[in-house]
Amino acid sequence: MTATLNPEVAPAFSAPAEQSVVLSWAWHAHAVVAAAAMVVVGLLWDISWHMSIGRDTFWTPAHLLIQGGGLLAGVSSGLLALHTTFRGTEAEKASAVSFWGFRAPLGAWVCVLGCGAMLTSAPFDDWWHNAYGLDVRIVSPPHILLGLGMMGIVLGALLRTLALQNATEGEPRRRAALLFAASSGLFLTILAVLLMEDAYRGIMHNGIFYRTLSRPLPILMVAVAVAGRSRWPATTAAVIYMAVMAGTSWVLMLFPATPKLGPIYQDITHYVPLDFPLLLVAPALALDLTWRRVRDRPWWLASLALGTAFLVALVAAQWPFADFLYRYGKNWFFHIDNFVYWRPKETEYRAYIFRPPLPGQPPQATLMAWALLYAILASAIGRVWGRWMTRVQR
Questions:
Q1: Where are the alpha helices (DSSP H) in 196-232?
Q2: Residue 166, SS3?
Q3: In degrees to the nearest 10, what's the CA dihedral of 80, 178, 187, 281?
Q4: Which of 50, 68, 170, 219 is spaced 20 to 30 A from 287 at the CA atom?
Q5: Is the peptide bond before 216 cis (omega within 30 degrees of 0)?
Q6: Element (H or E) spanning 322, and its range?
Q7: Inter-CA distances, 157 with 33, 74, 104, 125, 173, Å
Q8: Per residue in 27-60, pLDDT tens?
Q9: Cα angle at 296 between 294 and 298, to 5 degrees?
Q10: What is the DSSP string of 281-292?
Q11: Nearest CA among 124, 251, 146 for reference residue 194
Q12: Could you tell me the sign of the dihedral formed by the alpha carbons of 98, 19, 174, 232, in that order?
C-alpha cells in the first residue's frame, strides 16, 4: 500500500478473479464520473443562464449538457448491463447485482434510474413553464424530479467508483480512491446548490445558516471520510466542490449574456455567476482528522466528536469569511457585485449587509445548539453509511 492511502481503513478482500472483473469495468466508472461532471456543470450553467438571460427553450446548451450527461451515464450503464447479462463470464455475473433478470454493478442500476428520471423531467418542465410561467423558486415539481435524477447519476458514479476502490489494491486503488473523492465532491456540489436558497451570504452571521448546513452536509462528508481510501477523502471532495463551483463561475463570466425576459433592472453584459462556494474545506479537514482519532471509539462518542468538529470548523471558517466577502469581494474573483437582472437597483445595498434576525426568531445560542445537535445526528448517520460503503464491491 502506498503512503498516500488511508491507513485507518482496512483493505477489502478481493480475489484475483474478482479484481480482474472490476478492473475490466473500470471504463464504466470513468464514463459515469464524466457524466456526473457534465450534469453538475450543466446545472450550474443552467442556473446562471436563468439569472442572466431568463427562460428559454429546452434546447439551451446548459440543458443539453445536463441531459447529455444523463444519457452518457444511462446508455453506458445499459450497455454494461446487456453485456454482463448476455455475454458476461460467470465471474462477471457473480460480481454484479441482479435487477429484473439483468445483471450489472449497483452503481450502474442507480445511473439507469437517474437517467430515466431526468429524461422524464424534460417534457414535464417544458409543460410546467408553458402552463405556469417562470419559477418563483428553484424547487418546483419538474425540478424535483430532475434533481432526483441528477442526484441518481452522481450517486451512481459514487457507488461505481466506491466498488472499484474497495475491490482493488495498489495503484488501481489509489486511482479509484481519487475518482471516489471526485464523485463525492460532485455530490457535495449538488447538495450545496439545493441549499443555497436557505443558506445564502446574507445570513452567514445567523444561526439559521449553520443549522441549515448541519442537517445534510455531515451525512455525506462523514461517510466520505469513513469510506474513502485516500489520506484526505473528505478534504479532497470539498476541494473538488470548491473548484467546480468557483471554476464554472469564472469561466461563465467570460462570456456575454443579456436578458431576454422582463422586467430588466440590471445592465447584464455577461453571465451572472452563483455565489462564491462555501469554505467546506475547513470542516472537511476537521472531519478527516477527527475520524482518525475516533474510528475505534463507541458510536455515540465518535458521532459527538465528528459533529462538534464539523460545526466548530464551519463557524470558524465561514463567519469571518463572510465579513471578508463584504469588504473585499467586489471583484471578478469573489464576484459579490453581480446581480440577477430582475433585482431592482434600489435594493442593491441589501446585498452588502447581513440580514437582521426575523421577529420571533430564536436566540442565536438556541439556533447554534440546534445546529450542533443536527450535526451530531447527521454524523451518526454518515458514520453508518460510511461503514456500509466500505463493504460495497459490486
A1: 207-214, 217-227
A2: helix
A3: 180
A4: 170
A5: no
A6: helix 299-328
A7: 5, 11, 14, 25, 16
A8: 888 999 999 999 999 999 999 998 898 866 677 8
A9: 80
A10: HHHHHHHHHHHH
A11: 146
A12: positive
DSSP state letter for 102: E
Alpha carbon distance 165, 228 (integer Å): 8
Neighbours of 63 (CB within 10 A): 20
Q: How far apart are CA 143 and CA 237, in angstroms?
A: 25
User: CA–CA distance from 21 to each of 15, 27, 80, 111, 363 (Å)?
Assistant: 10, 12, 12, 20, 57
Report CA-CA distances (Å) from 101 to 82, 93, 97, 114, 145: 11, 11, 10, 19, 26
C-alpha cell at 234: 473528505
Structure-block grid coordinates of residue 175: 486511482
Give whole-number Cα distances, 391 to 21, 202, 287, in Å.
17, 42, 21
Q: How far apart are the first and last CA of the chain?
A: 22
Nearest one of 205, 370, 221 to 288, comparing CA atoms: 221
Q: Which residue blocks in 133-169 are alpha helix, DSSP H?
A: 141-166
Q: Is there a contact between 222 and 291 (Cβ–Cβ < 8 Å)?
A: yes
Instruction: Give the three cell numbers for residue 50.
Output: 436563468
Please name which of 297, 308, 290, 291 lies closest in space to residue 373, comparing C-alpha atoms.
308
Contact criterion met (CB below 8 Å) for 208 and 367:
yes
Half-sphere exposure of 16 (CA within 13 A, CB side): 0
For residue 215, the one-letter residue type is: R
Kindly give the interhelix angle for 217-227 and 281-294, rounded to the nearest 10 degrees. Answer: 50
Task: Please name every residue paired with 98 in a beta bridge, in sequence order, or none if there are none.
Answer: 103
pLDDT digits (tens, 9 = 90+) for 291-326: 999 999 999 999 999 999 999 999 999 999 999 999
CB 29 within 8 A of CB 160: yes
Q: What are phi and psi of 184, to 5 degrees?
A: -65, -40
- Per-residue pLDDT tens over the stretch 232-247: 999 999 999 999 999 9
